[in-house]
Amino acid sequence: MNARISNPHVELEERYCAHNYAPLPVVLSRGEGVWLWDDHGRRYLDMMSAYSAVSFGHAHPRLVAALAGQARRLAVTSRAFYSDRLGLFLQRLCEMTAMPRALPMNSGAEAVETAIKAARKWGYRRRGVPDGQARIVVCRGNFAGRTTTIVGFSSEAQYRDGFGPFDGGFDSVPFGDAEALEAAITPHTVAFLVEPIQGEGGIVTPPDGYLRRCREICSRHGVLMICDEVQTGLGRTGKLLACDHEGIRPDGLVLGKALGGGLLPVSAFLASNEVMEVFAPGDHGSTFGGNALSAAVGYEALGLLQDGELFANTREQGHRLAEGLRRIQHPALREIRGRGLMLGMELDPRFIRARTFCERLMTCGVLSKETHETVVRLAPPLVIGSEETDFALQAIRDVFQGLPHHHA
Ligand SMILES: *Cc1c(COP(=O)(O)O)cnc(C)c1O
User: Fold this and answer.
1) CATH 3.40.120.10 for domain 61-303
2) CATH homologous superfamily for 27-60+308-401?
3) Which of 228, 239, 279, 400 is catalytic?
4) Region 228-255: what's the mean pLDDT?
5) Which of 168, 223, 237, 296 stands the most exposed, by the fewest C-beta atoms within 10 Å?
């Protein structure tokens, strides 16, 4: 369908870009706060936030100032040298998350890869697991990025299809089932990698107490608990970390997306000294990881979270949005899931596919994207206000009102 709308920018992308996405037919050219504008000047409310990377809104003045100022001073030197930005950024990151040490990377997938390497080497060096035999437990429905190792432990057929062989070393258990985790642990298990809420998997929330039980099981078996908070972290669920809702600290923490302030790819793997000690100079690295520009923007992004106001707003607007959705009485709306401003609507596909729902929302001035066939994600920038939340709700109600009350 995209190829059929006649727009020169769409045609160029379709002509030259790999077709590894299926964008909605809108050409964006400007963003400010929670709003985006297309190439015809039409305005849309962003209920997608670039998969939660734009938590602070588009073109946040403090973040743009940090970016521009640092770009003029110093941007990329590689970690062959120290910079006057990286230490300050990581100090703030470690102090805010109460994790002792950080390894800076760029994309979320790279930080997850870093976590996997750290866990395996820790297993060999500290736990005495025979070389090459470390195993990591993951959850079905996980999403942790698109590298070959990561798609190798995905349960999504399309993510894997055609990209093997996969090396293994991963065991899958159902998400939300702590007993299944315990049953899957063997003497060679070094880590359990888990998202506190599965984002790409369809905004799937585990039962209350799940993370706490997993924490206890991991501690008892000497297995590292590694939380992938690339999407749930940095305020998305109404607290700094989704782990905070259950009062636990993992042994390893992966952050990304919003850490770059919606301007740059910035990610990090955080862990204890004991885990991070496995890395010696030359073991692991990244040309751009921890560069001064990323560090300056990441530092400022964390600064925007320090007073906690954004968390309070996230809880308030998340509640307003969820309550408004719950008042919609339509048989096509099966379930509302999530926490804070990480919400998903599960639709009955006999009425409408999630993709079609998003296309109709777009014509009502709201941008979002489906995850899987049946879930529409609702994850605006955390700076959203009540009027804007109500605007989103009205558009959603309008789309439901256009649907029949009985499926075909
Ligand atoms: C998006 C995401 C990643 C991967 O991040 P990229 O920057 O796209 O590589 C990893 N884990 C989770 C939970 C994510 O949502």
Assistant:
1) no
2) Aspartate Aminotransferase, domain 1 (3.90.1150.10)
3) 228
4) 98
5) 168
